[in-house]
Design brief:
By secondary structure, the protein is of the alpha+beta class. The chain has one domain. The chain is 51% helix and 18% strand. The protein is built from 4 helices and 4 strands. The chain has a 4-stranded mixed sheet. The relative contact order is 0.14.
Length: 132
């Protein structure tokens, strides 16, 4: 299908399955929120919401909103981590296909490219360094 024919639909993986919700592009790199992320977000709200409610009884239902905000902060943290990998790779002209944020955190998918071991190490270390 052409790009025009697929506009407005969720991106598809190589198997033709929907990848998730497209969030847009950052520095030309597609960012996708996988449907599985909602599982970890729900888990965070279900587990952390009651803990907050017990610790701060005055919060009431707002404790669950705070728990969801925490899940969003984790999502942003993972995005920063993966973006650091992608942007460092871009410096070395290592093509990056997309960043996927999912149940396990996320991953940066690179297009076929052979980098030197030194550059690969720098790309690998960029993610954790961004979260310091």
């Amino acid at each position: 299908m052409t790009e025009r024919a697929t506009r407005g639909r969720a991106p598809r993986n190589r198997n033709g399955r929907s990848e998730g919700i497209p969030l847009g592009r950052i520095a030309g790199i597609r960012v996708v929120l996988a449907y599985s992320w909602f599982v970890i977000a729900a888990f965070t709200v279900i587990v952390y919401g009651p803990v907050l409610e017990r610790q701060e009884p005055g919060l009431g239902i707002a404790a669950y909103y705070v728990a969801f905000a925490y899940a969003l902060l984790l999502l942003i943290s993972v995005l920063v981590h993966e973006l650091a990998h992608a942007l460092t790779a871009k410096i070395f002209n290592w093509p990056t296909e997309k960043i996927v944020l999912n149940l396990w955190g996320g991953h940066t998918q690179f297009e076929g490219f052979t980098a030197t071991p030194g550059r690969s190490v720098l790309v690998a270390l960029a993610g954790p360094a961004a979260n310091l």
